[in-house]
Design brief:
An 11-stranded mixed β-sheet has the order 1-3-2-6-10-7-14-15-13-11-12, sandwiched between helices. About 30% of the residues lie in helices and about 25% in strands. It is α/β, with parallel strands linked by helices.
């Protein structure tokens, strides 16, 4: 879309995912959507704008209370409740309204919304580190953590560029160790080692322990996860009641994405051709490991889905006139 069409779509706000819009113009940088969350410091956004590569376009709706499901927004593909809490931010990128969405992630709040819409997601403990170190939260299962900032994009090159601007990266020419689950039958275009993972859709504390033990010994791991929030209701507030709600939550297929931030890691999600299914790369927040992970995970990028482009990112979908207009 052209910038003028992106502005018109934001004003139309077909999924009620926009809270506020700002003036933008053609040729003045990529359009940013920012989650309506106090964890995202104004100085961080202003620094991006000052590079002249980005324009602030929208303030995006988020799930009330920071929940993992947004009861006010609908997933444009499935019609289910939208994954949270960076729900509006993901929708606005998915529709083509914004080039980049900036959200905050505690237990999957950037990664899950990105994955459920087959978008690229990225989080890191290193993004705006000084400001983010001021915050602390407690999860529904009594795990204390500090949130991270992250990005959502539909184009990998756009994602890669903002990561370069905001995350320190270092080249590393050493031999790399990449691990995947022993039950993952995918073929990867680089050498991987299969190891036993815990039940990634099970107890969060067990998965935290797994990452804390494994990540220091490798460059990064890949966890193929999903379909996110397609068959279940992926929210721990809902899931904590009893065995029945726990199993419904489990069917939402949110795995290590729920704990990547809680161990201070950096993570990137690359969508597959399956709805809501992504390759999730996770590494320690060490510049050389992040650089290796991005380089390798880029090899998993596939072309955009043609029907998504036609049905959601075509201006005619939103602006064609009907009878009597």
């Amino acid at each position: 879309m052209k910038v003028e069409e992106m502005k018109c779509l934001a004003n139309l706000n077909p999924f009620s995912s926009v809270i506020r819009t700002f003036p933008v113009s053609e040729g003045n940088g990529l359009l940013l959507g920012v989650k309506n969350d106090f964890h995202i410091h104004p100085s961080f956004i202003q620094n991006l704008i000052d590079t002249k590569n980005y324009q602030l376009h929208t303030i995006d709706a988020m799930a009330q209370g920071g929940r993992a499901i947004d009861l006010k927004l609908i997933n444009p593909i499935t019609g289910n409740y939208m994954s949270g809490s960076s729900s509006g931010t993901a929708i606005n990128v998915f529709l083509g309204m914004n080039d980049i969405g900036i959200g905050s992630d505690g237990g999957g709040s950037v990664l899950a919304p990105a994955m459920c819409l087959n978008l690229f997601g990225f989080i890191s403990y290193l993004i705006d580190k000084e400001n983010m170190n001021l915050y602390s939260k407690v999860s529904t299962d009594d795990i204390r953590f500090r949130p991270s900032l992250g990005y959502i994009a539909k184009d990998f090159e756009v994602l890669k560029e903002i990561v370069k601007v905001t995350v320190p990266l270092e080249n590393d020419s050493s031999v790399h160790k990449i691990v995947i689950s022993s039950i993952d039958s995918s073929n990867y275009p680089f050498e991987v080692e299969r190891i036993d993972f815990p039940d990634i859709y099970g107890d969060r504390k067990e998965n935290i322990h797994f990452l804390e033990q494994v990540l220091p010994t490798i460059d990064f791991l890949i966890s193929k996860e999903g379909p996110v929030d397609v068959e279940g209701f992926g929210d721990s507030v809902f899931g904590h009641f009893d065995e029945r709600t726990k199993q419904i939550q489990r069917k939402a297929k949110k795995g290590l994405l729920r704990v990547a931030n809680m161990v201070g890691a950096t993570a990137i999600s690359i969508p597959t051709a399956e709805l809501g299914v992504s390759y999730l790369g996770i590494c320690e927040s060490i510049p050389s490991k992040i650089a290796v992970m991005i380089e390798k995970m880029e090899k998993l990028v596939i072309p955009q889905d043609e029907l998504i482009e036609r049905y959601f990112r075509n201006p005619e979908t939103w602006f064609r006139k009907g009878y009597g207009e």
